[in-house]
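Summary of Year 1 activities. Much of the first year was spent building the evaluation harness for sequence design. The harness presents a backbone, in tokenized form, and records the residue chosen at every position. We chose the following record to illustrate the format because it has been used consistently in internal testing since the harness was completed.
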């Protein structure tokens, strides 16, 4: 039960992509193309798409004691461990202060930074706290990070996992009993009620952890309003991602089964909890020391795990690259490369499957993994020295151009393009993107340098726009500058204040 999402639930969703297809991909919906195709960028084995390739360097003895299976699993699920001593030292100092302020805590927790651009945090007993690079990049000061870490520790001290497990067992017993003595419809109604009850139970636990975390971080000397500020930033982050991917932001309209409360509700309750402690201005934010601790940290995707530069995607470890059609916004998801054009009229997905070498590409593309296939459109070809096959499919208002490329003897990459109208122009643009798929050289990989956080000081005449002009972001640099600095559009920068920017 993390500050930002239920880890077990979200990661279970990822693992399903490694089991291959259980049903044809429905060509009726771009949503299915983007989210529900059961494949991954990786060969279909136990390795997550974005698992870290290099073995992390030896750690200090105090941290090396964390050798539990859960610890290793969490590191693997979130792209490996990210070593950044200055940030680790700073965050561990915060954890020591939280331990002294929390009467329910014993020894201080220890930090592990995860090499993931996603925004998340969680804790595991007996003393492990995890935060992603993405969370550190979004946070603006120490009080925000302190609130997040105190929230995660609160889940453990309040025994939320045990309480949830007992609630799930109780719901399972009720559902099982209903299935025996009641009709199928009534049984389904009971099960649905149990699911809603568990979801509500989880939301209450999140709010309780918020309250505990705010009190503990305030007792440790931090600004109690840090939690509300970070939750607000989290909501803006979700909205920006949603707008970039042409999806409606839904932070304020949670599904009734959502395990976390809506962001506005959490922000309002966090502010109320902080007011019970004191008026704004109490407690320290430690903004300058925090920014110094994350200065130089990698931002966004690790190039070894897939780098997006404009409409070009390169994956150093998997060894391929391609160029998406102009106007596409790309997202390096754990199960695939996803892309969508402004307005949502066109989309793409790139993933991989394991296919026996004895299966021809023509036979595979016609094997039933996508609905609406036009069998007569299948053509065999060659893409940059690799055997390939292409075809078209259609259903309802959507048309698809497909390509499968044999990258290795038993490994096939699939490029799936969707459009409402498959015009000659769309075919030309999609085929150009397909033909850009190639194996990358060592020099090509080295040429892609990781993005990193840099700290700049506002001078007379500086504005959000002048700082945004220095951002190495291909899409909406001003919006990203405002986001990572918790600024609103039109807000004046303070002379002498330090701000985060993203540079190459």
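For this record, the design step produced the sequence shown next.
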């Amino acid at each position: 039960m993390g500050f930002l999402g239920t880890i077990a639930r979200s990661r279970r969703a990822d693992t399903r992509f490694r089991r291959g297809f259980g049903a044809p991909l429905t060509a009726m919906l771009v949503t299915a193309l983007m989210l529900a195709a059961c494949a991954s960028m990786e060969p279909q084995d136990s390795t997550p798409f974005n698992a870290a390739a290099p073995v992390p360097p030896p750690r200090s003895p105090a941290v090396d004691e964390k050798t539990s299976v859960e610890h290793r699993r969490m590191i693997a699920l979130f792209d490996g461990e990210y070593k950044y001593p200055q940030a680790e030292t700073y965050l561990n100092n915060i954890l020591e202060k939280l331990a002294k302020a929390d009467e329910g805590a014993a020894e201080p927790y220890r930090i592990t930074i995860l090499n993931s651009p996603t925004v998340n945090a969680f804790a595991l007993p007996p003393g492990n706290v995890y935060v992603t690079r993405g969370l550190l990049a979004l946070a603006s000061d120490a009080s925000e990070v302190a609130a997040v870490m105190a929230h995660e520790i609160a889940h453990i001290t309040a025994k939320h996992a045990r309480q949830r497990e007992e609630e799930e067992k109780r719901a399972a017993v009720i559902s099982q009993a209903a299935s025996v003595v009641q009709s199928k419809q009534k049984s389904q109604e009971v099960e649905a009620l149990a699911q809603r009850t568990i979801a509500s139970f989880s939301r209450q636990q999140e709010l309780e952890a918020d309250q505990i975390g705010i009190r503990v971080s305030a007792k440790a000397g931090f600004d109690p309003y840090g939690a509300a500020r970070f939750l607000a930033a989290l909501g803006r982050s979700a909205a920006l991602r949603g707008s970039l991917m042409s999806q409606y932001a839904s932070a304020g309209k949670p599904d009734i089964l959502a395990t976390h409360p809506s962001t506005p509700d959490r922000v309002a309750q966090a502010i109320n909890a902080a007011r019970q402690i004191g008026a704004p201005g109490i407690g320290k934010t430690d903004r300058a020391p925090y920014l110094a601790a994350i200065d130089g940290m990698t931002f966004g995707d690790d190039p070894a795990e897939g780098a997006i530069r404009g409409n070009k995607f390169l994956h150093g470890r998997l060894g391929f690259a391609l160029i998406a059609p102009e106007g596409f916004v790309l997202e390096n998801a754990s199960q695939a490369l996803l892309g969508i054009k402004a307005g949502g009229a066109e989309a793409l997905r790139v993933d991989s499957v394991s296919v026996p070498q004895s299966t021809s590409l023509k036979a595979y593309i016609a094997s039933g993994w996508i609905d609406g296939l036009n069998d007569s459109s299948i053509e065999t070809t060659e893409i940059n020295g690799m055997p390939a096959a292409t075809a078209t499919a259609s259903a309802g208002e959507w048309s698809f151009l497909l390509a499968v490329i044999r990258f290795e003897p038993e490994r096939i990459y699939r490029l799936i393009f969707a459009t409402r109208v498959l015009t000659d122009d769309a075919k030309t643009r999609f085929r150009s993107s397909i033909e850009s798929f190639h194996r990358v050289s060592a020099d090509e990989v080295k040429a892609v340098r990781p993005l990193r956080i840099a700290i700049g000081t506002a001078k007379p005449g500086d504005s959000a726009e002048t700082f945004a002009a220095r951002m190495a972001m291909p899409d909406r640099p001003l919006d990203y500058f405002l986001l990572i600095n918790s600024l609103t559009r039109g807000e004046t920068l303070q002379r002498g204040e330090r701000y985060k920017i993203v540079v190459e």
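The first helix runs from residue 7 to 15. Quantitative recovery figures across the full test set are reported in Table 2.
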